[in-house]
Amino acid sequence: MSGRARRVTAADVAREAGVSAATVSYVVNDKPGQTIPPETRERVLAAATRLGYAPYAPARTLALGASNLVLFAHRAPIVPPTYARYLEALADGLHDHGLDLVWQLGYEPSAGARHPAAELAPAVVLHLTEPDPDEAAYLDRFGAPVIVALASAPLPDRPSALQVRHLAERGHRTLGYAAHPDPRLAAFDRSRYQTVRETCASLGLPAPSARTIPLGRDAARQAVADLLATGVTGICAYNDEIAFAVLAALSDLGVDVPARAAVVGIDDHPLAALYTPSLTTISLDDPATSAADLVRRIAAARTGAPIPPSAPAPPARLIPRAST
User: Fold this and answer.
1) What is the pLDDT of residues 148-182, one digit of tens each?
2) Is the pTM here over 0.85, yes or no?
């Protein structure tokens, strides 16, 4: 005999409240166009609370033709702490609109592999940046509007541009770029490296050397040694995770930081201030402010209204520490 408790249904609530199952559906789903007396509404809601009733999501989706889910689809297998805080603020804001945020991490759009998210019927699909053609085709399968969360900032305001300018202000003329080894981040990596190249050119600096930095200690040490052999004295890391690997390699190589080599990350990871030496990094925009703007756009997309343009993102902010 199964020990699983029987699910409370709308019929149970109807019997408890002394109304029809249709009335329960009208009340708990807040269906428009239905005139339910206030006392009846209160009786249904009180019965639902007593019984612990919650609408069955698949049935609700079938009945209404749409779900209350917002799907965040991201090719990387993880999100950095900065984006995690952003998504937390976003989830709170969406909840106020009766929407729930779900994540899909680490998908491969052209691989043909089935993903659990394919079973969802989201009201809106959220993508961090402008999707490439493969990603756009993959996201189209959900049959829902796609919202791009992050608009591209002008070159001077991009985090990687701040890295270059900060190192140049510290007197570094030959810069290097430390790339992430995960191929699923390749599009982000290329974008940040291109920003480093363009900013170096605008400042009259030589084109930066680039190396992929593995996350194994021995391999990272060799990659950083190769980068230093090109004459690099200032290193722009893809993010703080890669910057930590670079700093560990520099320590193993006996390289003085920042006298011989300076390092700047991106994301303001919680460990950046605790690392030795503490890591100079770039803090991205305020999560709560950006999330509130995105909630406004998602809410419009869900109703079929014109999607308002995104508000200008607050500029990224340099946090100087001991690594530079």
Assistant:
1) 887 777 888 899 999 999 999 999 999 999 999 98
2) no
